[in-house]
Design a protein that fits this description.
mainly beta; Tachylectin-2, Chain A; Jelly Rolls; eleven-stranded antiparallel β-sheet; six-stranded mixed β-sheet; about 5% helix; disordered N terminus; binds beta-L-arabinofuranose
Length: about 700
């Protein structure tokens, strides 16, 4: 967490990939979303855990909203969100209480290149909330607050509508919902203020027998709204309809019940009403989170609703997190009720972590639980208890993955089950399947910090095209899934496109003919490959077929014992030639095998006093010989790297040798027991500098 704060302080935007909730690095509520320069910016309020009171002091309420500053977040795809850090703090507001923790729901609009940020704050002098405005030249601030709050606008939850004719209106919640025209300067309301009597509350806000004080208020009450508690107005225009949308408590409170907020709306042909109440946009949260607060916008032809829920804080509904879902309209302009989802919106690239617990739909028996109840920001997992359980996740983009890709999945399971990832639904084509049993847990896993989750991989069996939905099914005992990811395999080799090649800048030879792996069943351990073993086996033509006297051709087949093996012309994309990956790509045995690799290098003249410098994982043997004029002498290996070793460049060097004018053949045999075999080789001169003046011809 410390690193994270430091990054924000230093001004590094923090990328957050998201389903619902969309912000994972902090609590955030009341998300007002706006489009500026083709990007969506979300201005939420920033819930924090209330600081503990100093001994002997009352401090801030521990069970109430607590907000000391604002961040802004942006996204172009509604999936990847960047936190731009703090844009305004309570200490920066001259008229506000610097320790009030009352920076509630804000809004931001742009006019003539200036950004106007409207925010409520507890007043330094007197009681209650004022609403201030801060300005900036960029949507991500820094914002500078005006020295005074806006006159006549006392309350919370400001929202500003910039109408098509350029006229701005401000709406806020203060003894009902009020609205007023803003002056052209965007910092003052237009029109006279009226004296208004503070309503007497039970228990009283004025001394016994006295009338509560009057105060000056701007604008007008929004008419036509239903009875019941209302706050958080958000007004937008679509066509010639104005929509006044607001959190609303529709339930009966008279019997001491405590019904929670819905999101509701009214429509009008006039920005200040009167309004025609239409009903609900979103029902009460099913877990009794008391507040909801929202904004609605159109982005790239689709309408979205941003709202909040207390996902990361299930026992304290004053610490909330923003969500997004799609919203749609009927032909008459009324709003179709939104059913909140965990999947949210946006397309998830297959090669990013897909949090399957943020599902689109699921079978009823699937449960979603926190990974860590003490640190809820570690997210959730889905548990599929039976063979018929399934979880579906919509809109995964497979275009970034190749058919050689593989599935990585973080699971927790009883022994002997299989997780299947299918396309579309529980009967769809299998994209990949991961058997989970004692053997795979021993041979193919990495434990996470808790020591109970396994990260398993499996090859792709089928690659859906473009954007498709996925569905996971458990095919045995209960299985829990945290996330899955479909990864592109790195391209270790390229096909050969030119008749000749050069060594790379550091002199490493990347172009080779490689023979498919020869079975070497006794090679259980790399320790076996002693000097004597190597001589008896790799240097023994009776045991290992040598690729001489002629250079093999691409596609040429050879027989060894019962194996029919093929030579492949390859160009390594890295300085080290990854034999293990070569075998894996061909879907041949990768362990307990032996590889032959051969290449031809052509020199314009003799290059004397060079050494062959090689490294390999595991043991290897090296030969260099002129293609013509082969002698018994040069048939001997020039270098042997024996036993269990990692690949290190220039790990071993041959004696001095001469690369002959004309063609020279360089070949090696590399054995792989249980490791990840590869090799690198180059020629170096007397000073250890790479020799590069030759051509590779295969
Ligand atoms: O976030 C503090 C307050 O809770 C907001 O201002 C209200 O709209 C409610 O969401």
């Amino acid at each position: 967490m410390k690193t994270l704060n430091l990054m924000i302080l230093l001004g590094f935007p923090l990328a957050i990939t998201a389903q619902n909730p969309i912000i994972h690095n902090q609590f955030a509520a009341d998300p007002t979303a706006r489009v500026f320069n083709d990007k969506v910016y979300v201005y939420p309020s920033h819930d924090i855990i209330p600081p503990k009171p100093e001994p002997g002091q009352n401090g801030v309420r521990q069970d109430w909203f607590c907000m000391a500053d604002y961040h802004v977040f942006s996204s172009e795809n509604l999936t990847d969100w960047t936190d731009h850090g703090v844009i305004l703090s309570q200490e920066d507001v001259q008229w506000g209480n610097p320790a009030g923790y009352s920076m509630w729901a804000p809004d931001c609009v742009e006019k003539n290149g200036k950004y106007y940020f409207y925010f409520p704050d507890g007043q330094k002098i007197g009681r209650g909330f004022g609403i201030g405005v801060a300005t900036a030249d960029s949507p991500v601030g820094p914002f500078t607050a005006e020295p005074e709050p806006i006159k006549g606008v006392s309350g919370i939850d400001p929202c500003v509508l910039l109408d098509n004719d350029g006229q701005a209106y401000i709406y806020w919640s203060g003894m009902g919902i009020r609205g007023a025209k803003l002056k052209d300067n965007m910092k003052e309301v237009d029109g006279e203020l009226q004296a208004m009597q503070m309503p007497q509350r039970p228990g009283g806000n004025a001394p016994q027998g006295q009338t509560p004080p009057a105060f000056m208020v701007a604008g007008q009450q929004m008419e036509g709204l239903p009875d019941g508690f209302k706050e958080g107005p958000f007004v937008f225009r679509r066509g010639d309809w104005y929509y006044l949308t607001f959190p609303w408590v529709r339930g009966d409170t008279s019997n001491g019940a405590n019904p929670t907020e819905t999101l509701a709306y009214a429509m009008s042909k006039n920005p200040l009403g009167p309004w025609d109440f239409k009903g609900i946009i979103m029902a009460e949260h099913s877990n009794r989170c008391w507040t909801n607060h929202h904004s609605i916008l159109e982005y790239k032809g689709q309408w979205y609703i941003f709202y909040h829920h207390n996902d990361y804080s299930p026992r304290d509904d004053k610490r909330r997190s923003p969500h997004i879902d799609k919203i749609a309209f009927n032909a008459d302009g009324t709003i179709i009720e939104v059913k909140p989802t965990l999947r949210g919106v946006g397309v998830t690239p297959a090669n990013s972590r897909i949090e399957i617990d943020r599902f689109s739909t699921k079978s009823d028996d699937v449960s979603i639980l926190f990974n860590d109840t003490l640190n809820t920001f570690r997210g959730w997992h889905a548990t599929l208890p039976s063979k018929t359980s399934w979880v579906r996740y919509n809109d995964v983009d497979f275009s970034s993955v190749n058919a050689n890709g593989y599935l990585t999945v973080c699971v927790k399971a009883n022994a002997n089950t299989t997780l299947k990832v299918r396309e579309r639904d529980a009967k769809g084509k299998v994209i990949a399947q991961v058997p989970i049993n004692v053997v795979s847990q021993m041979g193919n896993f990495r434990r996470d910090m808790s020591g109970r989750w396994l990260t398993l991989t499996a090859p792709l069996l089928y690659l859906p095209k473009g954007i498709s939905d996925i569905c996971i099914t458990g095919e045995g005992d209960s299985i829990s899934v945290d996330w899955l990811q479909i990864k592109k395999r790195p391209e270790y080799f390229s096909s050969i496109s030119s008749p000749t090649a050069s060594p790379d800048e550091q002199g490493f030879i990347r172009r080779w003919m490689i023979l498919e792996p020869i079975d070497n069943p006794e090679a259980n351990s790399n320790l076996l490959f002693s000097f004597t073993y190597m001589q008896d086996n790799l240097a023994n033509p009776a045991k290992l077929p040598k690729p001489l006297p002629n250079m093999p051709r691409d596609g040429q087949k050879v027989k060894h014992d019962k194996q029919s093996l093929t030579w492949h012309a390859t160009e390594s994309n890295t300085y080290n030639v990854r034999l293990f990956r070569f075998a894996d790509l061909l879907q041949k045995a990768t362990y307990r095998v032996c590889f032959w690799a051969v290449t031809t290098i052509e020199c314009e003249e003799d290059i004397p006093n060079v050494r062959l410098a090689a490294g390999s994982n595991g043991a290897s043997m090296w030969w260099v010989e002129p293609a013509e004029g082969k002698t018994a002498e040069n048939d001997k290996p020039v270098l042997m790297l024996e036993s269990d070793r990692r690949m290190v460049a220039d790990d071993g060097m041959s004696n001095r040798l001469t690369l002959k004018k004309g063609r020279n053949i360089v070949r090696c045999a590399v054995v792989n027991g249980p490791g990840l075999s590869d090799f690198c080789v180059r020629f170096v001169d007397e000073k250890g500098k790479p020799v590069t003046k030759y051509t590779i011809k295969n």
